[in-house]
Amino acid sequence: MKSFINEEFLLTTEAARRLYHGCAEDMPVIDYHCHLSPADIYADKRFADIGEAWLADDHYKWRVMRANAVPEEYVSGKASFREKFMRFAAVMPGLIGNPIYHWSHLELKRYFGFGELLDASTAQAAWDCANAKLQSPAGSARSLISAFNIRALCTTDDPADDLRWHRLLAADESFETKVLPTFRPDKALGVDSPDFPAYAAKLAEAAGAPIRTADDMKAALEKRIEYFAAAGCRLSDHAFAAPDFTVWDEKAAEAAIRKALGGERPTPHEAAAYRSLMMDFLGGQYSRRGMAMQLHFGVVRSINTKLLREVGPDAGGDTISDTIPIASLAALLDRLAERDALPKTILYTLNASDYNKLAACAGCFYDASARGKMQFGAAWWFNDHIDGMTAQLKTLANIGVLSRFIGMLTDSRSFLSFPRHEYFRRILCELVGGWIEKGLAPADYDGIGKIVQDICFNNVRDYITLEE
Known about the structure:
Elements: H1 14-24, E1 29-31, H2 38-43, H3 50-55, H4 59-67, H5 81-91, H6 99-112, H7 123-134, H8 141-146, E2 150-154, H9 164-170, E3 178-180, E4 182-183, H10 186-189, H11 196-207, H12 214-230, E5 235-239, H13 250-261, H14 268-289, E6 292-297, E7 299-300, H15 305-310, E8 319-320, H16 326-338, E9 345-349, H17 355-363, E10 374-376, H18 386-399, H19 419-437, H20 445-463
Parallel strand pairs: 1-2, 2-3, 4-5, 5-6, 6-9, 9-10
Antiparallel strand pairs: 7-8
Helix pairs in contact: 1-19, 1-20, 11-12, 12-14, 13-14, 17-18, 18-19
């Protein structure tokens, strides 16, 4: 039987194959949003086996294993990684239609040259094949990154982080991939979290000044933004469910932080006012420094209390929230644009019913300061599958300007996730190639091929001003 992952994978037309193999396939990669550990990259981490590399932190895989009634001991528990891998392999045939089925086979093929279907009968062969590579010089963290022509990757980092590993990597001339920090101040905005006072103390220590008021918080965040910018930071990142940025009440914002620092929970109005005030401030800071602002909407985290208590966060207990009111997003963007302080902005949503309105909202705030300044971002998390990516691309083409899109990211903690860029590129070429085949786009392979290459690499390189 022909290998499942072959040269024609996802490419059903001659136009799609021509665009992919002639234009997209060999383009470099900038993974501008991931959760890889810079410490692991610096240390050139080695994995004992494919079980550890695949299953140590992958809540995508954990969820589908639980769906197949795999005991938690073999999911996130104390079983050996070999036992966990064998359990995962056994459920793989039933994952048809899930992107994990494609991702896993693509990773086995691209990293390890293993082209058979993964199931209980082939699990041992896959285990042996993958482990031979992982235990060779080609199996270290840096080698796995370099194998996929990754020019740069952007990690996700707390404002209080000292960025030690980023500074060491920047000074290490033996590793060509740039590893850049991303400013992620979610904890500083979580004024209604019981952990806020402890976090504020940690941030104050990093900034070298006490935090007692909203102005103190602004000053601390500004110092840390400067610190991150000096370390090569090009982007910030924020995650919300469905925030209300229409609330503008500076007294309430001040009350929120004072209450929180005093151990009292702010009211919902006060917390919303605080977040509006801080996001308005942060957006202006990013704009001044040419940093892009990533806004992720539509996620509710840790809704399974038992799972949170027994396994912890980021364990597969997060879900899609209600849609964000467009008035909320517009209020934030409009306040910034009104005073020429709106940074380059990327809008993502976990709720696919928000696709059209986010793409349309982004288009209201284009200006001449940057091509594609406002981005309707890549299909995220529960949407990064064939249907979700295709819908995101179609929405952007219909409502915005697809040719200015900055392309895909992994959003992953795994060093084996980079074939997702190939997955996206094949889906992109299948969509655009289909338009050519149907007469909806001209068979101008030079012009359209250039657009494909821009989406794959050139646009994001220019967007984050990465020097080569």
